[in-house]
Amino acid sequence: MTATPWLPAHVETVTPLTAHARSLVLDVPGWTGSLPGQHLDIRLTAEDGYRAERSYSIASFGPGERVELAVDEVEDGEVSPYLVEEVRPGDFLEVKGPLGQYFVWREDDPSPVQLIAGGSGIVPLLSIARARAAAGTAQPFRLLYSVRSAPDALYADEIEELRARGIPTEWIHTRLAPPGSPRAAGRVSLAELERLTIPPSERPLIYICGPTAFVESTADAVVAAGHPPLRVRTERFGGA
Ligand SMILES: Cc1cc2nc3c(=O)[nH]c(=O)nc-3n(C[C@H](O)[C@H](O)[C@H](O)COP(=O)(O)OP(=O)(O)OC[C@H]3O[C@@H](n4cnc5c(N)ncnc54)[C@H](O)[C@@H]3O)c2cc1C
Q1: Residues 47 and 124 in one domain
Q2: Could you read off the pLDDT of 205-222 as tens digits, one per residue?
Q3: Which of 83, 109, 121, 122 is the most exposed place for a label (fewest CB within 10 A)?
């Protein structure tokens, strides 16, 4: 089997998403396209030869050589501050991928889909939601998006557009609820999860993505609510 090669990636555009996150659109000659939900690896090489590699989910999907990523800065991190604050259009990075065959959505799967995101965990789920909207399929989709406060949400405007196109969204604000919000700030409870997501009787596929602690507690909660573990797919971004 041939190993996936590192490919040079030309940074086309950078767009702020929040005060601490931005999207990067890369032009990657030789890129084979990606399935909704896949990720890639980025490799940075310093002048003295020191190298760092990290994984980033792909917000775009489908064929073509343009790849969209969204990076949320981890304050004391090594790679994300560089990607969020330093990288400019015209710069080159190296990428390897697409990677991952498990945390993907396939258009021919008729199952209802429940997406559950914490923070930057929205990225692969947005790719899945975009693919569902583009496919025009009719199966029920829902998104539950947990963020610290409204200004921390990535792609909020696009998510509202997707809501209008048939992907109802529930917002959970963990630290600061927006003015007039019917829900006080706080982590999602088991009772809320049960009320706000597709029930086990409809046998949805559930995709959960975000920081490790968020993914583990949410996956435990949906299984406790009666969803079979094999219908629950998780992707952990690291961190608390
Ligand atoms: C499959 C996969 C897909 C990913 N996709 C994305 C993506 O689309 N967008 C994105 O922004 N990140 C994504 N990540 C996380 C990303 O790979 C890095 O871990 C993240 O950018 C931090 O890297 P860093 O070098 O800045 O921090 P590091 O130097 O690696 O870590 C510094 C400190 O921050 C903590 N930390 C590491 N990661 C996180 C985190 N995510 N949240 C909170 N604390 C953390 C560490 O425990 C450590 O204490 C993904 C991770 C995986 C495994």
Answers
A1: no
A2: 999 999 999 999 999 999
A3: 109
Residues 91 and 160 in one domain: no
Cβ of residue 44 lying under 6 Å from some atom of ligand 1: no
Is the Cβ atom of 211 under 6 angstroms away from ligand 1? yes
For 113-163, give the DSSP string: EEEEEEGGGHHHHHHHHHHHHHHT--S-EEEEEEEEEGGG-TTHHHHHHHH
Percent of the chain with pLDDT over 90: 92
User: Residue 1 pLDDT more than 60?
Assistant: no
Which CATH number does the domain housing residue 144 bear?
3.40.50.80
Do the Cβ atoms of 146 and 174 come closer than 8 Å? Answer: yes
pLDDT digits (tens, 9 = 90+) for 66-125: 999 999 999 999 999 999 999 999 999 999 999 999 999 999 999 999 999 999 999 999
CB distance 55 to ligand 1 below 6 Å: yes
Supply the range of the domain harboring residue 92. Answer: 7-99
Regarding the beta carbon of 155 and ligand 1, being less than 6 Å apart is answered: no
**What is the number of structural domains in the chain?**
2
- Establish whether residue 146 lines the binding site of ligand 1, counting it when its CB lies within 6 angstroms of any ligand atom: no
The residue out of 42, 64, 99 marking a domain boundary is 99
* Domain-embedded: residue 107: no
Q: Whose CA is nearest to atom 44 of ligand 1?
A: 239
